[in-house]
Amino acid sequence: MRCWIALHISITIEAGQDLWEPAAVQQAVASVALGFSPRVTLLDEAVLVDVTGSLRLFGDLTRLTQLLQARLLDFFESNQAIAHINQRYGATSLIAIARLRQQLDGPGATAKTRVANLPMHTLSAARPHLGVLERIGCRTWDDLLRLPRDGVARRFGAELLEALDRARGAVADDYPWQTLPDQFEEKIELEALVVHAPALMAGVQRLLTRLQAWLLGRQSGLSALRLIWHLDKRKDVPPTGELEIRTAQPAQALQHVARLVAEHLARHQLAAPVHSLSLLSLVTEPLGDAADATASLLMKEGKQGGSLVELIERLSARLGEAQVQAWQPAADHRPERMQRWVPAQNAIKSIAISTDIKRARGKKDLKTLPFSDNNRVEALYPSWLLPEPLRLAVTGNNPLYQGRLLRLAGPQRLEATGWLALTEDAHQAHARRQTPPAMRDYYIYRNERGSLLWIYSVRLVLPDTQAPLQAQRHDWYLHGFFA
Prior knowledge:
Layout: E1 4-13, H1 22-33, E2 40-43, E3 46-50, H2 55-58, H3 61-78, E4 81-90, H4 93-105, H5 130-135, H6 141-145, H7 149-156, H8 158-168, E5 185-194, H9 201-218, E6 220-231, E7 240-251, H10 255-266, E8 274-286, H11 306-319, E9 325-329, E10 339-343, H12 344-361, E11 384-391, E12 393-395, E13 398-400, E14 406-416, E15 438-446, E16 452-458, E17 476-481
Antiparallel strand pairs: 1-3, 1-4, 2-3, 5-8, 6-7, 6-8, 9-10, 11-17, 12-13, 14-15, 15-16, 16-17
């Protein structure tokens, strides 16, 4: 048995919000509904959804309508609007919309009104003839069905009979179905010329709202978009300017994306007044499960780490990418080169991945993880490293630092000779090497004050022709402190 849902949304908006024209509301509802059924159409004031083929996927009609209603409420709430949802069901599209219109007429209507008792004005094809039908006593659909078909066709036209047949299911419901393009691209005209970039956010918000509805309908998340502003041609400037926004993880609710756009626009100066805006989706990713298509910025699996990712992206947009940095490990045995600092915007993917790994460690066996604690290195590294190793005084080939030192542990042997450059010879002096080797023995010492020091001696002894081999001394360096 076929099943249709007729939807009508009325919006209550906050002061200063003018995003919601009736046509925009209807189109947004249709886009969201496409996430539940491919057969969605707009008819008069309602959005009609054929959910016959979706009932088995979602369980039953009750479950489907609950999910659809929750999705619509979350969508409008995330865009500073309160939605009042009216919905009715029927075996055909015209029955569903007729029951919806009866509900909108007043509180006395019931959801299970018999088709025969539906008022005549709830049928669109009968509205031009309501006066005549009222005078001949036709007040319900059943009254009209009792009249001779030939007489009804001659008096009111074939369209009324065709509508009755479609309402009864004798004629298939066939409409121009709504579809969503593979890529979102829309352009809007601004109400007035804009000369300051931050003032573009009013138009950007309208475009982002439509983009969010498109994402919900396609069950996808947005990772990158391009905003284009079209400049007034009266000045000798390029016709357009643009801005690209990228996020580390796919987003459906676009409040975070809107904040990133606002941060970039706050630092931008327009070359000429702007008369229109275009928004283009660059990278989208399908969400693997309908249950993951939530109204949050990140999917449920990654929700705990979302705040750090958002903070990094916002700070990078506000201060500049070079001002927000993160460290990354480097493939080098030398402690001072085991990590490097890079713009956090470039490292944000690895930050999100590390967050997922930490979360997985709380759920799975550590032995199954690639970065398990079982792979730790049996070595002690200090809490603080000096910017440059400090050469120490030596007595009897033993280092001194604020007095005599007591050796506690070591040596930990470290060797990173590197590759020779093309112009280098294997017997060149240490100081002349373009890629100086590191051949060190690290020790843990304690000084007279009780502090723990990380000290190494250079194992690469340079030949000295003036002194015998036994008299050559190693150089000692202080490299770090333990907490």
